[in-house]
Amino acid sequence: MKLHFSKYQGTGNDFVMIDNRNKRFPAGREVIAQMCRRRTGIGADGLILLEEDDTYDFAMRYFNADGGESTMCGNGGRCVIAFAHHLGLFKKRTVFRAVDGLHEGEIEGEWVRLKMNDVKGIRQIEEGYFLDTGSPHYVLFREDTEKTDVIAEGRQWRYSDLFRPEGTNVNFVQVSGPSRLYNRTYERGVEDETLSCGTGSIAAALTLAHTRQNVSSPVTVVTRGGTLKVHFRQTDTTLFTDIYLEGPATHVFDGEILIP
After folding, report:
1. Per the count of CB atoms within 10 A, which of 5, 127, 202, 234 is most buried?
2. How many beta carbons lie within 10 A of that of residue 257, not counting itself?
């Protein structure tokens, strides 16, 4: 079967995009994993299916690079907005359905703004903080993240008994200003460091606001792949609403691939 695809990236977090409104894509785990492999496939941090929705502009299904269907992906959500806009499904503003419910989005050129669900509950676990921003994240503050072995330490926390059975994503955060930080993320399902993580950037920003007094919205999050902005409203120490993730989402190329 010959399949058309598009490749998008948001601050270095890259995704294979499939227009699956005709429901022809064989969403098997091994097929997806092969497509996402860097050297023998297209290469991506994940794969996203854009599908029909009876009420809203479209639906999003997200799969990790290992082929497993996963929780919400922030940069993936921004990229699927850009993809849907390219397909002509909306003009400037959209509402779509994802695994964690409805999301609003807005696009201006390559700049995409995505509304996320409220976040309630940030728990301190050992030396870090755990919260769910659409995906589970563990946040650890470091004086110098460049000296951190993100893969080795990230894997240790990701598979820790503390977070079984699902595991967690792990963020290593260096504070660089009152509302500015540098974030490196080990992503479960990719099982590696990615150049950027949207839900991880949100987790880092909210944890910063939770633990420090002088943090105001938006928080600038610098990643290895680029810069994101996280907007939020903090109603108390553990509840955050009106959360928006914004930054660039770029069309990289289109192609065709033969799949079994």
Report:
1. 202
2. 15
Spatial separation of the C-alpha atoms in residues 194 and 151, rounded to whole Å: 10
Is 36 among the catalytic positions?
Answer: no
CB atoms within 10 A of CB 151: 12
Look at the domain 119-245 and name its fold: Diaminopimelate Epimerase; Chain A, domain 1 (3.10.310)
Q: Architecture of 2-116+249-258 per CATH?
A: Roll (3.10)
User: So what's the pLDDT on residue 213?
Assistant: 85
Domain residue extents for the chain: 2-116+249-258, 119-245
In the prediction, which pLDDT does 116 show? 98
Q: Tell me the C-alpha to C-alpha distance, in Å, between residue 153 and each of 63, 156, 166, 237.
A: 24, 5, 18, 28
Same fold across 2-116+249-258 and 119-245: yes
The predicted-structure confidence for 117-156, as pLDDT tens digits, reads as follows: 999 999 999 999 999 999 999 999 999 999 999 999 999 9
Segments of the chain with pLDDT less than 70: none
Angle at which helices 198-211 and 74-86 pack, to 10 degrees? 130
The residue from 73, 107, 243, 249 that is catalytic is 73
Catalytic residue among 197, 208, 209, 249: 197
